[in-house]
Structure to design on (309 residues):
């Protein structure tokens, strides 16, 4: 699989008059994003997510060893036509209507398709803004602005789409609709890059994530790999484990017992079979065996706290 985003050694220091040393918003960040996935960059407020996207898009200057988008250096102007962007806290011209904004963006991105009208109506319908297309942006609510922002990010049919907090201010139904739309984009072969701190939302659709804290990447990989523990298993049984069975299992590391379950921390996979055998020999029926999962939120908090210390 091709990488559509390649970042190597990205550092950004904001210098300000007050602080001579400046703020190190990104500290030697490196990671790649393969084509055709939904990728989410997570991190607490001020972690550097927006700065990273702005540096990638050339909106701000930063130091780096290498940065490529769609296989070309970020300084190559032609790639901009294939990239869509929904900025954080965007301020679209308030005097334009929704439809005029889409026209404006399409022209900015040099969109050559002669299907602009159908495409803009299709997208406005998708984001549930069709009936507001002739209304001025200044009258839009926060959620409406965000929906329109999403449509303008993809009007020119880009291959790579950056969305900085796309569901900010959008109600739960709207969020679900936006998620579905992002999955549709992925199914068309597009790559979607999301900046977010809405973990439960990101967890539902992201194929891969990176977690940024204080300008450093503290995790990169799948949500699955982060939240699935390799060593903790939970066995579901037909009755409450009694003292006798716990004595029989004394050679294993039982970490928790419940009404109908026992959880173990294991060192070698073979231990699982031996545990099952002992349970069966003692007239317990095995109803299920699961690897213990922690939520993305728990993992996120512990990772961020660990790197803060
Ligand atoms: N223009 C600027 N001048 C000086 N410092 C800045 C500027 N923009 C951002 N920063 C600082 O850089 C750091 C990273 O900010 P950034 O906006 O990239 O974070 P973020 O991860 O997007 O946060 P949020 O989740 O709140 O959007 C913060 O410490 C912020 O104060
Ligand atoms: Mg931000």
């Amino acid at each position: 699989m091709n990488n559509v985003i390649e970042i190597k050694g990205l550092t950004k220091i904001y210098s300000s008059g007050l602080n001579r040393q400046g703020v190190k918003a990104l500290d030697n960040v490196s990671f790649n994003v393969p084509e055709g996935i939904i990728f989410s960059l997570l991190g607490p407020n001020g972690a550097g997510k927006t700065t990273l996207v702005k540096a990638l898009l050339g909106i701000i200057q930063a130091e780096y060893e290498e940065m490529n988008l769609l296989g070309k250096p970020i300084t190559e102007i032609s790639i901009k036509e294939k990239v869509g962007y929904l900025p954080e806290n965007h301020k679209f011209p308030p005097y334009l209507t929704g439809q005029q904004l889409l026209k404006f963006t399409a022209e900015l991105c040099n969109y050559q398709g002669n299907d602009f009208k159908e495409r803009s109506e299709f997208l406005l319908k998708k984001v549930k803004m069709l009936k507001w297309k002739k209304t001025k942006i200044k009258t839009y609510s926060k959620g409406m602005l965000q929906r329109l922002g999403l449509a303008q990010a993809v009007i020119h049919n880009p291959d790579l789409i950056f969305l900085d907090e796309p569901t900010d201010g959008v109600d739960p139904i709207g969020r679900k609709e936006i998620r579905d739309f992002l999955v549709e984009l992925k199914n068309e072969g597009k790559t979607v890059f999301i900046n977010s701190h809405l973990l439960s939302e990101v967890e539902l659709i992201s194929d891969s994530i990176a977690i940024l804290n204080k300008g450093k990447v503290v995790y990169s990989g799948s949500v699955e790999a982060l939240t699935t523990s390799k060593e903790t298993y939970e066995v579901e049984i037909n009755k409450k484990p009694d003292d006798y069975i716990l004595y029989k299992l004394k050679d294993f590391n039982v970490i928790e017992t419940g009404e109908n379950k026992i959880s173990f921390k294991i060192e070698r996979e073979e231990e699982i079979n031996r545990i099952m055998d002992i349970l069966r020999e003692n007239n317990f029926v095995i109803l299920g065996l699961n690897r213990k999962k922690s939520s993305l939120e728990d993992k996120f908090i512990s990772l961020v706290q660990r790197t803060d210390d």
Remarks:
- The pocket of magnesium ion (ligand 2) is lined by residues 49-50, 88, 164, 195 (CB under 6 Å).
- The mean pLDDT is 92.
- The chain has ten helices and 14 strands.
- The chain has two domains: 3-221, 229-294.
